[in-house]
Predict the 3D structure of the following.
Amino acid sequence: MMLRVLLALCVMVLFSGCAAQNTLINQKQDSSSPSTKYIVSVPIERADDGNRYWFVTLKDVAGEAVYKDEGKEFSAKLQVYWIWDAGDRLWLYSPDTGRVYVWINKEGNWEKNLWGFGRGNRVYKEAIQPPDDLFPPYLKIT
């Protein structure tokens, strides 16, 4: 009997470490912007078409939603990566398409913009660059 209890405890201890997930800096839910004025979450939700997608959601410090992207570009079957830059712009990288998006607050209205493809193929009119930490580890420049 005592052996079973000890074995069960060992198994619990072993697997308790597996339960903790490492949150990547570029997939952190409820991440505050550098100014701390905004909070981003990118939850997976079921859309009206029955499929599940990542939806960019921005809130103010009071927790009120100020923007929600209703687009269905980001299938929950695949990963996406997001991060703030120093200018309170939100960036998102979609590895399945290679597209990089940037959300910019223009006079209280958040605008979603296609920045470009991958690290250097900018199509966006402004000469801004995504933060290096936006990209997953396998795309990091060494």
